[in-house]
Design brief:
133 residues; alpha/beta; 6-stranded mixed β-sheet; 38% helix; globular
């Protein structure tokens, strides 16, 4: 599995998750968008430029461009995990610790699901399921 954190999330968070996934045999890479593209790369360009079947983590709802981004994500076979809007109102360390708490469930879900857009709520519970958008 390949995970990409987009520009709406800090590179340091993506890199920390990458280090924590080093012992996960089915995780090939975890990177930030700026590891692969220049920061100003338009969404439609990096979505197509990734190749097939990535898992994208974002706060962005990909609602711009009248659905063009969502269609590009679908065509590329990417699975998207969108953080609830509440995530934006929290400082880096709180947001980071909460994502680390959620990450085992993200990995479990990613092993079972390909494609679609799934929402990660702010409030964490071990039995909580991701809402598909």
């Amino acid at each position: 599995m390949n995970f990409l954190f987009d520009n709406n999330l800090p590179p340091d968070l993506a890199h920390a998750v990458r280090e924590l996934c080093a012992s996960e045999p089915d995780v090939e890479q975890v990177c930030h968008l700026t590891d692969l593209f220049v920061p100003s790369t338009p969404d439609l360009d990096w979505i197509a430029g990734l190749g097939k079947g990535w898992y994208v983590v974002s706060i962005d709802k990909f609602a711009k461009s009248r659905g063009a981004e969502r269609e590009a994500l679908r065509r590329a076979g990417h699975t998207v995990y969108v953080l609830d809007p509440q995530w934006s109102s929290h400082p880096f360390w709180i947001k980071s610790s909460r994502l680390i708490l959620w990450w085992p469930q993200v990995l479990e879900h990613a092993r079972l699901i390909e494609g679609g857009i799934h929402r990660i709520p702010w409030k964490h519970t071990s039995g909580k399921k991701f809402l598909s958008l």
